[in-house]
Amino acid sequence: MQIANLGFPRIGRQRELKFAQEKYWRGEISQAELKQVAKELRRTHWEWQAQAGVSLLPVGDFAFYDQVLALSATLNAIPERHRNQDDANVDLDTLFRVARGRAPSGKDAPAGEMTKYFNTNYHYIVPELTVDQEFSVAYEQFFDEVEEAKALGHAAKPVLLGPVSYLFLSKAVGSDFDKLSLLPKLIKTYADILARFSDQGVEWVQLEEPILALELDADWQTAIATSYDTLKDTQIKVLLASYYGTIAHHQALVSALPVAGLHLDLVTAPEQLALFAENLQPEQVISLGVINGRNVWAADIDLIAERIASVANDLKGRVWIAPSCSLLHSPVDLDVETELAPALKQQLSFAKQKLSELTQLKALLTHSQNQSADSPAKAEVDAILVTCVARRDAREAAADKQVIDRVAALNSDDYERDTKFANRQTIQQQKYQLPLLPTTTIGSFPQTPAIRGLRSRWRKEEITEEFYNDQLRQVTRDTIERQLKLGIDVLVHGEAERNDMVEYFGEQLQGFAFTKFGWVQSYGSRCVKPPLIYGDVSRPTPMTVEWAEYAQSLTDKPVKGMLTGPVTILHWSFAREDISREEIATQIGLAIRDEVVDLQNAGIGIIQIDEPAFREGLPLKKSDWDAYLKWAVDAFKLSAAGVTDETQIHTHMCYSEFNETIAAIAAMDADVITIETSRSRMELLTAFEDFEYPNEIGPGVYDIHTPNTPTVDEIVELIEKAADKIAVRQLWVNPDCGLKTRTWDEVEPALKNLVQATKVLRRRLG
Question: Is 285 exposed, middle or buried (0-12, 13-18, 19+ CB in 10 A)?
């Protein structure tokens, strides 16, 4: 039995990669220094995996921004606007230009579109392919890292997104064409890549086809079969990996593929094991993804061993045990968490510890197959079993009966506003008297070094609570004054007091806990530190009312109350696994509802309940969508339905395709929804061509994920594109997302242009 791993986090346990990247972008270190940081991280992570018994180390899972972008560079699929026309080489700076929106000249160029990787909070840069796209090996990082691993004495298993999934995740640009027409040329380049690996002495390569968890039509199924039939002639063993869901619906297709090994996600779909084990080809390896790569809770090793023991025994040397997916989605190392309560810490497992869980699982399986094992081995097994039982007992003792009873008492009326939107809209228009194309922002304003430093000093108790709050009030006043000067119609208080849109609320809710170093990469150098939902959720006291009241006292213009919605809090936390996600979302929805009502009673008439992760929770199979959408919509409606008609409820969503979920989004019944659309140049609004969205909508016109300043003309063009699909009377004008990651020098010129563009269009369209 072999211990395997699909991939490891690259950020470092102290976010070393993030800080080195940002120093490089600021010109504070050289590219060589950045690469040295990366090299040291890889060395450490490979050593940890080798020590845990991983014999084939994943290589190519490391990326300086995003692994899909790194693959695009390897395939020479880089947009022309980011290429150096005098030099055909693709290097690290090329990748950064694609990701950050730069031309080789240093001038602004639209960044590559960014969206979420399947149903995760990880974002990837969407490959842009033309009808005459050519592919060739143009970027050396994968091959360099194979040599690097070999020099350290490790056997490398290169990791690449498979060719069909790569095409599926890409977008056609320049003209509308069938992306699968590019498959023959793409497969040839993949074959060249595998040949290079073979020449380096690589035995196994991991090709990932996560689209197998989707319901594919015949053309895409044929593409899978054709691709792997072609690649079988390369002198290298292929481990075909899929994850995030079951692939049992494609069993006949997958089992017939000429691959040397198959990886299954048995965390999301344990039931598929028997089906694929029964149809395994002679000599074919099966990799059992039994440790959850997307959560932080320690596994029930004993129960997993019982579940897979018969397959492990029957197939013996052909079984690998592994995480369900890459550990990219897990924090790096629990060992650095020195401030967690011991009772909670023993319930947790980060990426490094998940490798140890695999070692323990192997010990249990080996012991079950060899009852004559010596006493030290038996003592180790007994200790593992005692720990597993103790963890389960601790979870069962944490229930909050008051929360459970409140959820049980809910009825259908608790999920509905008093009247339909059309009536509410009239009441709200009379109250707020907003102009055509009202302008607003999404919530946060720049979290400057001064603000972050202030928060750090407060947490270290170097300053008093009174001094801290006084400083934040000054920042809030300044933020309101800047918006008034810019002429924005609906203001926000700027969220200077908030560290993160989920963590801030989790810190004030019962049932949540926090790590100090539990960071996970979201995209590029952007990392998030999800809270831990370990118990039943409730809101002991108001969370945002004091800051909202203060901000509203500074102006006669409406100031939005800013909240994070229940579905996003759930998805952007590491949620407990002993009750359903639906039940957790309902508990959070009730807590947010209490806050919404208190904000309204405090005189806050516009309240935004952000749900950027709404689509993220969708099951990959469309046939499973309805059940998820039902409880996700209900959780949002529960959070918003306690207010009167004149209270205007906003929500926000970003980096999501809306076409297939637009009816569910409409069912949320938010008075106003703001969405990300600028990177796609309003392409995401195609969802609204065939669906008459009933409420008001603000398609983002300012891409806040690049330092570029949109011009007045560019914003005018985007709003006009939106007006082609949505009635002008329904439109709001706003950035794509919150502005906390930008500087004031970037934000103010962009918002000035946004307001000016709106004035131009009010004259033109009004």
Answer: buried
Burial class (CB in 10 A: 0-12, 13-18, 19+), 107: exposed
With beta carbons less than 8 A apart as the criterion, state whether 712 and 753 touch: yes
Contact 358, 322 (CB under 8 A): yes
Which of 69, 59, 55, 40 is closest to 3 using CA atoms? 55
Residue 342 to residue 351: CA distance in whole angstroms: 19
3-class DSSP assignment, residue 337: coil
- Report strand pairing: 510-513 vs 532-538: antiparallel
- The first and second tokens of residue 672, run together, are 């106003």
The residue whose two tokens read 């709050």 is 469
The number of beta carbons lying within 10 Å of the beta carbon of residue 399 is: 13
> Which residue type, as a one-letter code, is found at position 514?
F
The secondary structure element, H or E, covering residue 98 is: helix 92-100
Contact 394, 347 (CB under 8 A): yes
For 731-756, b/e burial (b = at least 16 CB within 10 A) is bbbbbbbbbbebeeebbbebbebbbb
Closest CA to 273 of 307, 241, 297: 307
Cα separation of 366 and 488, whole Å? 66
Which of 705, 713, 760 is CA-nearest to residue 738? 705
Return the SS3 of 698: strand
Cβ atoms 503, 518 nearer than 8 A: no
Among 263, 211, 264, 268, CA closest to 245: 268
Best CA proximity match to 502, nearest among 567, 450, 551, 582: 567
The total of other beta-carbon atoms located within 10 Å of residue 26's CB is: 8
**Mean pLDDT per 10-residue section of the chain, whose length is 766 residues:** 96 96 97 98 98 96 96 96 82 95 87 90 95 96 98 97 98 94 98 97 98 97 97 93 96 98 97 96 96 96 94 92 98 96 93 97 85 66 86 78 95 96 96 96 94 94 96 97 98 94 94 95 92 95 97 97 97 94 97 98 97 88 93 98 97 76 91 82 70 87 86 92 88 92 94 96 86
Q: What's residue 636's pLDDT?
A: 98
One-letter identity of residue 439: T
* pLDDT at residue 725, as a whole number: 84
* Tokens 């490089």 -> residue: 24
- Give me the catalytic one of 82, 154, 329, 705: 705
Phi, psi of 536 (to 5 degrees): -70, 145
State whether the Cα torsion 492-494-498-500 is positive or negative.
Answer: positive
Distance, in Å, from the CA atom of 228 to the CA atom of 612, rounded to the nearest integer, reads 36
82 part of the active site? no
**Cα atoms found within 13 Å of the Cα of residue 115, Cβ hemisphere only:** 21
Nearest to 67 by CA among 398, 264, 325, 433: 325
> 324-337 burial string, b = 16+ CB within 10 Å, else e?
bbbbbbbbbbbeeb
Run of H or E residues at 138 = none
CA dihedral 82, 113, 704, 518 (to 10 degrees): -110
Tokens of 485: 């000067």
pLDDT of residue 395: 77
Task: Kindly give the residue spans of alpha helices, DSSP state H, lying in 322-374.
Answer: 342-345, 351-369
Position 766 scores a pLDDT of 67
* Half-sphere CA count of 318, side-chain side, radius 13 A: 15
Which tokens is 250 given?
Answer: 């494609």
* Tokens (6 digits) for 399: 């229930």
